[in-house]
Amino acid sequence: MSSVGYRQLWAVDPGGWRAAGAAWAGLAGPLDRGLGGLRTAGGRLRDGWSGAAATAADTRLSRLRDELASIAPALIEVDQLLAELAGGLAVAKARLAQAVTQAEAAGLLVDRSGGVRVDPARFRPTERAGVAAAGVAAALRAALDGAAAADRVAADRLDDLARAAGTGWTSPPPSGRPPLGAAPALVSAWWSGLTPAQRRWLIVREPALVGRLDGLPVAARDQANRLRLDAWRAELLAERRRLLSRVPPGPLAVIRLRGVAGRLAGLDALVGRLTADEVPRAYLLGLDPAGEGRAVVALGDPDRADRVLTYVPGMTAGLDDASGELGRAARVLERCAALAPGERSAAVLWLDYDAPDLLTEAASAGQARDAGPALHRFQEGLRVSHDGPPARQTVLGHSYGSLVVGVAAREHGLAADALVFVGSPGVGASHASELGVPPGEVWASSAPDDVIRAARSPEELGRGALLRTAPLAAVLGWPGRTGHELWFGHDPSDPGFGGRVFGSGRGGHTGYWDPGNPALDGMARVVLGR
Fold this sequence. Notes:
With 530 residues, this protein is of the alpha/beta class. The chain contains 20 helices and 12 strands. The strands form 3 sheets. An 8-stranded mixed β-sheet has the order 3-4-6-5-7-8-9-12. Strands 1-2 form a two-stranded antiparallel ribbon. The longest helix has 41 residues, at 127-167. It is globular and about 90 Å long. The model is unreliable at 456-482 (pLDDT under 50).
């Protein structure tokens, strides 16, 4: 074991690497402003200058704009890889601390060089103490090996970027593109056949394609989608201008204006999280500002995590509150980090379906069925793009989102090791065995005061109070449902469903993520496989 490595790992500051990456990403703003200035200058030249020299100047300016535009993904990539280096070092330091704690509990000493020996003031050397010392030494080596591996990956990727800058940053790929909705395995094979320069060309020139293809690396999708943020915001601003141009605006226009304002605020909140120097780094895997708005955002890189959670929210979810839904995924991730600081976990908010807005919509499984193929492809994509040994994949559905997960699992299959349902109105199945995951890996929780639970237990809440305080429950659970049957099938939190149940404190339909609620620990333990 290298004594320098041991001391270096104790002394390293992962936050410094993360801040360095954020600084590189911050250069994208000045770069974009510079590109805007070149476009303006080029337009002025074309308006007031003609002839061969003018054509040559315009061509040179166009090439210069292309060259500068190609730098933007590299700035994002540096941020990505330094954030991942910081994450890897943080996990390695946590493992190192766990090994030292293990040594202290066993009466062992770890010296400044990382050597392990019996503490003579507490114990005499014995065969059992020797075994314990060997275990601690192995744990220390694993921590150092993890740090070294993270360092090698970051160094190799930085070397690739440096070489690309000198030999040709981008080059057009061959013709032929996989269509949106293509099988993730085919997408992955196509991407693997491209050179790094061709991949960068596609990210710069065709970000709408790269950002949406399931099966591509998370890093590539994040780069492409971040390049489109300004365009998406411009779409919403243009929609708002069109609505404001109607004088006086009618009632429908007023409603639409409120929707646009909500989506703009939601987009700005997401951008704030995407550009924040926070742990873990956020990755933008998809966004659509149309309709109610959709978003797919990961916290931490799922391609390099040991444990990955995909969270599917329920009724009324949209772009306007995507950051709030992302906060729920973040709270599960925080509990995972607290329970297993030596493991790398990531969480994804998957809001890539048209969630019901009205109670009449929520009473139908139609929107859940429509979402099934997309959720199936997304999970398949996480499997094929993952780097290293397969991660443990968990899919969590809340409220109507649990129906989305259940229907996708039963009708299409999900690349998942575990399914979790909280506050569920039913998952479109009568038994856990229909959902296609390993036995014992279907989990559910229902709070004692959740309106879904109250809807099938009228003795807990009179019908009049139910209709006044829980209209969702009135639609989803009341009409003619008795025993353990909910609107969309057998209650997954009933032991007779065949799954496993973890407890929840009181908190209503949305309190599962509240601090101190045992359901939060329950969700995290399923993600970790504990």
